[in-house]
Amino acid sequence: xxxxxxxxxxxxxxxxxxxxxxxxxxxxxxxxxxxxxxxxxxxxxxxxxxxxxxxxxxxxxxxxxxxxxxxxxxxxxxxxxxxxxxxxxxxxxxxxxxxxxxxxxxxxxxxxxxxxxxxxxxxxxxxxxxxxxxxxxxxxxxxxxxxxxxxxxx
Length: 154
Fold this sequence. Notes:
CATH class: Alpha Beta
Strand order of the largest sheet: 1-2-5-3-4
Largest sheet: 5 strands, mixed
CATH superfamily: RutC-like
Number of strands: 5
Helix content: 25-40%
Oligomer: single chain
CATH architecture: 2-Layer Sandwich
């Protein structure tokens, strides 16, 4: 039987990727009590993802797509942490977004909406979260966006 959240993903036309493997010495998530802390997920997908700096070759819309990729990777990690059952997610608590930017690029919050809007689309009111969005001079492997998160689970 397909769960409520899996059905919602299908309705949205969203297929979650295989959870990306860590690229350094860390684990992709930690479950502590009823919280899942997910390590930073970059804007990678099967095609290689979205790399580069916003304000240079990348505009806001492509940055939002990069943040959405991060959100898909976050959800894939949370699903793994929940034994494959996203219905265990009670709420998205906090997202921290890091955007690879030129010094004069300002619309960082709008870029992060690509991830935030995905969470609300998937989880409804339970997807509304606290958030930080900061511009960075550089991100790992030159990815455009990285997002980590905290999720409450049953």
